[in-house]
TrEMBL record:
Listed name of the protein: Aspartic proteinase oryzasin-1
Disulfide bond keyword on record: yes
Ranges for domain Peptidase A1: 70-408
GO molecular function, one term: aspartic-type endopeptidase activity
One annotated GO biological process: proteolysis
Alphabetical list of Gene3D superfamilies matching this protein: Acid Proteases, Saposin-like
Source species, domain of life: Eukaryota
Keywords: Aspartyl protease, Disulfide bond, Glycoprotein, Hydrolase, Protease, Signal, Zymogen
A Pfam entry, by short name: SapB_1
Family according to the record: Belongs to the peptidase A1 family.
Residue span(s) of domain Saposin B-type: 300-340, 360-401
InterPro entries linked: Aspartic_peptidase_A1, Aspartic_peptidase_AS, PEPTIDASE_A1, Peptidase_aspartic_dom_sf, SapB_1, SapB_2, Saposin-like, SaposinB_dom
Length: 408
């Protein structure tokens, strides 16, 4: 990579990311960015449907909005123009709205970068576009100094966005996104901000950490620390896991347990990514439905799910009792034709697309969920009546849209 090994610690002591204030003075060698929470605004939420130190570091305060958006403040240019950004481990580029963004309504609701007001601005002009799960942004690359948590990253390339067509960006509490992913997924071959922080010697260790505070009554929503770990927000030792594929912060999962019981999802190993840019836990619908059922989350009645259970449920159960391989059952009953897998993040075979043999057909998808549910219930030695009672209840917690694989 040309830089020291990068390490990421997601200190999931809470679940919220948003910036309120930039702490310009490094405390105990850490560069900090603090987090704060904001009152829930249901109307906008519906419209949008995102001390001591162990090493030299810098901290940025974060704000928490709906436990969905965690953002903090940075400065771009000389003198610095302030922007509120999401610190996103699921992307690698820095972008903010451009003052030349005239045709996207979202740009009129957020701060915009004005190149003429910065004495350190340098023109690049390369055209790029980035697709996110909630929309796309596009236009050209520029270069300027970027201030993060009290340190200045010099000659940083970033995107001046002149198109933000998604309504999500219009109602968002952030102006832009600061990507913390690997350079392998950076658009336009731009060197990410974090890489330059390390190569320019702005941090003592190639480590950044998140602390996310889920308690809305507290003033600070959390913080991101660049260059070290804040011991005030954790007890004991950290567990390190290797990054299995550069691009996203991707790692191997050994198992997914619900109520202490294995779901069997990762029987042959599966991959997942740590994505600070989303508030959602994503995974195969069959597993997510079981999680929702366990925590009492409401769902949508699926007619396809109920149809599969009523018409094919007994046959599926009989095949499982005969110890037929679960991945082959939906093909045997005629509901699926194996055709490979589909990913959510391009290029990643993650936990989201672990279900081998999935087709686009809704009935096939419903069958696959039923197989997973029955397999887990059989592992608990449940009776046939209890198995079908459980599955019928599960059908009320899921929409069998094959693209819907998320839970909050």
């Amino acid at each position: 990579m040309g830089t020291p090994r990068l390490a990421l610690h997601l200190l999931l002591l809470s679940s919220v990311l948003l910036f309120d204030a930039l702490l310009a003075t490094p405390a105990e060698g850490l560069v900090r960015v603090a987090l704060k929470k904001r009152p829930v605004d249901d109307a906008q939420l519906l419209v949008a449907l995102g001390g001591n130190a162990e090493a030299k570091g810098h901290v940025v305060a974060l704000k928490n909005y709906h436990n969905a958006q965690y953002h903090g403040e940075i400065g771009i240019g000389t003198p610095p123009q302030n922007f509120t950004v999401i610190f996103d481990t699921g992307s690698s580029n820095l972008w903010v709205p451009s003052s030349k963004c005239f045709l996207s309504i979202a740009c009129y609701f957020h701060a915009s970068y004005k190149a003429k007001r910065s004495s350190t601005y340098k023109k690049n002009g390369k055209m790029v576009a980035i697709q996110y799960g909630t929309g796309a942004i596009s236009r050209y690359v520029s270069q300027d100094n970027v201030q993060v948590g009290g340190v200045v990253v010099k000659n940083q390339d970033f995107i001046e966005a002149t198109r933000e067509p998604s309504i999500t960006f219009m109602v968002a509490k952030f102006d832009g996104i600061l990507g913390l992913g690997f350079k392998e997924i950076s658009k336009g071959d731009v060197v990410p901000v974090w890489y330059n922080m390390v190569s320019q010697g702005l941090v003592g260790s190639p480590i950044f950490t998140f602390w996310l505070n889920r308690h809305a009554g507290e003033g600070q929503g959390g913080e991101i620390v660049f260059g070290g770990i804040d011991p005030n927000h954790h007890n004991g030792d950290h567990t390190y896991v290797p990054v299995t594929r550069k691009g996203y912060w991707q790692f191997d999962m050994g198992d997914v347990l619900i109520g202490g019981n294995s779901t069997g999802l990762c029987a042959s190993r599966c991959a997942a990514i740590a994505d600070s840019g989303t508030s959602l836990l994503s995974g195969p619908t069959a597993i997510i439905t079981q999680i929702n059922e366990k925590i009492g989350a409401p769902g949508v009645v699926s007619q396809e799910c109920k149809a599969v259970v009523s018409q094919y449920g007994q046959r599926i159960l009989d095949l499982l009792l005969k110890e037929i391989e679960p991945s082959k059952i939906c093909s045997l009953v005629g509901l699926c034709t194996p055709n490979g897998t589909q990913g959510v993040r391009a290029g990643i075979r993650s936990v989201l697309d672990h279900e081998v043999g999935r087709s686009n057909d809704v009935m096939c998808h419903a069958c696959e969920m039923a197989v997973v549910w029955m397999t887990n219930q059989l592992a608990k030695n449940q009776t046939q009546d209890l198995i079908f009672k459980y599955i019928n209840q599960a059908c009320f917690l899921v929409s069998c849209n094959t693209n819907e694989r998320i839970t909050s």
